[in-house]
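Case study.
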Amino acid sequence: MSAANEWLYLDYAATTPLDPNVAERMREVRQTSFANPASNHAAGRLSATVVDQAGVQLAELLNTDPGRFLWTSGATESNNLAITGVAKQRSHLGRHLVTMRTEHKAVVDVFRALEKQGFDVSWLLPDADGQLSVEQFEAALRDDTQLVSIMHVNNETGCFQDIATLGGICRTRGITFHVDGAQAAGKVPVDLEALPVDLYSMTAHKFYGPKGVGALYIADGTVIEPLMFGGGQQRRLRPGTLAVELIAGLGAAAAESASRLETDLLHLTALKQQLLLGIETIEGVCVNGPKSGAYPGILNVSVADIEGESLLLALEPLCVATGSACNSQSQEPSYVLRALGRSDMEAQSAVRFSLGRPTSKADIARAIDLYRAAVVKLRSIAPGHTT
Amino acid sequence: MNSDPYSLKVRKLFANTAHAGDIPGGVSGFYEDQGVRLRLSASVTDGAMTALRFQAWACPHVIAAAEMVCSLFEGRPVADLELFNTAQIMDDLGIPVEKTGRILVLEDTVRSLGQAIQDRTDH
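After joint prediction, the assembly is written out as follows.
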């Protein structure tokens, strides 16, 4: 494999590097605040202050009250806790749950596990751009629906769902509304005071914070059951000693994002436009997801007559995600793109470019060149016909 | 964790597909299965394959294996195609067992080429 300094990393939807200011804050905390924040002594109180400060920073980013967050290990845990916690807490009222086919595995697999436990799940399909229609959503709701979980920004296509409208419908019907915000928090404006959302999952490493820490927002009046037991921390909903250094990193990343959200979006919008213009000129390329109005950090494209696994290798040293998991572990094309109506062939040739703060115009120009060269190479060696 | 699924040999052969292409007027064998489309073409003179080329819509392992087969058999008698050995190719290239089905498509294509050469000779 290429050395790290030769890579062209365009996989920021998978994870981001640690922001230098975040790293510095974590270094400070590591040296000064190692104590358990639950300990009732001066050192413990110092750690608790660090945690509290991170809560304030995250609350400022998302416009809410710092007391409404639970610290978790990341969005996967937040999703598990929110979905399972509500489903079980409200199971005596009904066992019908609603979500989408295009959710992240960290949501899909939780609902599948709940189905095995006797819950009835409605799986909604989006349109060809990935958008869920309000009419279809309303039609899926029933008198016994207890929970809806819809992601804010799709991790493969960048498609936004209309969280405000969907949440409003849930609120009028008394249905708990969970949003997986892993690809939105710290990347696009999110106002949790304004949005009718009961639970919102997020993770630090998607917005230049450390891996291994996330949060779950729980609105006032929303009740969940814990998944774990073993202490009184975090209102007994998520016991265990808090990871002070990681939480401080999340807080610092939130503060950094809050200060540059608009700049980041302008930067990404210009880069995505450049990338789209360069890629679109290649014959047979189609965009997966909305061509406009999607999150500007993600561009997902398929290309006709190209084998996805070979495309990924031919693209090196470009680091991108592929719609084909066609390796020794799995041969399943992206279920998200299949849900958008893409064929197996289209889905397996899909490439997700995801852009980030460090991405430059020169990076995009190089990515276009690498993509074009890979497509030309693979087309040149493919059989022209099948007889 | 996610270790490199490709051996150095596979990477080198995939990057340098010197035998990719077609031979106009040559003899071809084609096979399609397991998500693989593969064509082998040969020009044959006096019972020997003087040139071998491949065309593939396939994963990197199959492309590397096809390139290797062309290198191995180019210049050799047609009868040597019988010596094609799937297990040896997989071993040489470090191809995971999950890809056996795809490499068997290469074996079928080699046989198809041998048959096509035989048919032309008989004709």
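Observations recorded in class. Residues 100-122 of chain B form the longest helix (23 residues). Chain B touches chain A through 25 residues (CB under 8 Å). We will return to this complex in the next lecture.
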